[in-house]
Structures are given as structure tokens and as C-alpha cells.
Amino acid sequence: MAGNLLKVHENSNAVILSTENLSSGWYAGRIRWMMVLNCVFRSGGAAILITNRKSTRNISKHRLLFYSLRTQGAFDDKGYNSAIQEGFTGVTLRKDVWHVAGEFVTPQKLEQTKTFFYERC
């Protein structure tokens, strides 16, 4: 849709936002320790600014070289059961959530060639 709008409107910018939430137990409060589930392995997002301004073609700050690799741990029973709803509003975090989270944020999981790289233009 953003690409079509840029074709119609000259010298314009568009912001594309993408989000995912794999849990209906999203915590929207302000208590930090309860936000762990939102941050660890159940949600994500990205944004990009695109333009059709010819004057900015040669001064772009970055060019995308590789795509990021998304790691999801809910396929594993231990990961899935470490953060689960129990019929109440919100989510129960079991003590092994830290172990499960640690498995998915270690450098070994994301090879350097698979992470998000930018190249200065």
C-alpha cells in the first residue's frame, strides 16, 4: 500500500510499521518485571521509512544487506509452558522462563551473517 501511495504522490515519505504478537496475554502495564513476556520471545516489531524523493537518492544513510533471523521458543514445551495463561487476566511466568529466554538471546543462536546488517552508502 505504501508503495502504491508513493507512486501517486510525488516527493513523499511513508512509514511502514510491522508488529507481531503471538500471545493473547500481552501485558500493557508499567510493572517492569511483568513485561518480561512481552520482550523475550512472544512479540516483535519493525519500522522503516521509505521515500520517493529523488533528492535523497544519493544521501541515503543505510542500505539493507541481510534480513534478520527471528527466533521463537514457543515450539518447545518447556518454553511454551514457562509463560502460560491460567484462566486469569495476564500470564503466569514460571521460574524456568529465565533459562528459556537465555537460550534464545545467546550469540550462538544468531550467527553474525544472519543478523541485521547495514552498509553505509
Automatic annotation (TrEMBL):
Transmembrane segments: none annotated. The keyword Acyltransferase applies. GO terms for molecular function: fatty acid elongase activity. GO terms for cellular component: membrane. GO terms for biological process: fatty acid biosynthetic process. It catalyses: a very-long-chain acyl-CoA + malonyl-CoA + H(+) = a very-long-chain 3-oxoacyl-CoA + CO2 + CoA. The keyword Transferase applies. Pfam families: FAE1_CUT1_RppA. Residues 1-105 form the FAE domain. It comes from the Eukaryota. Keywords: Acyltransferase, Transferase. PANTHER family: 3-KETOACYL-COA SYNTHASE. This is FAE domain-containing protein. It comes from Centaurea solstitialis.
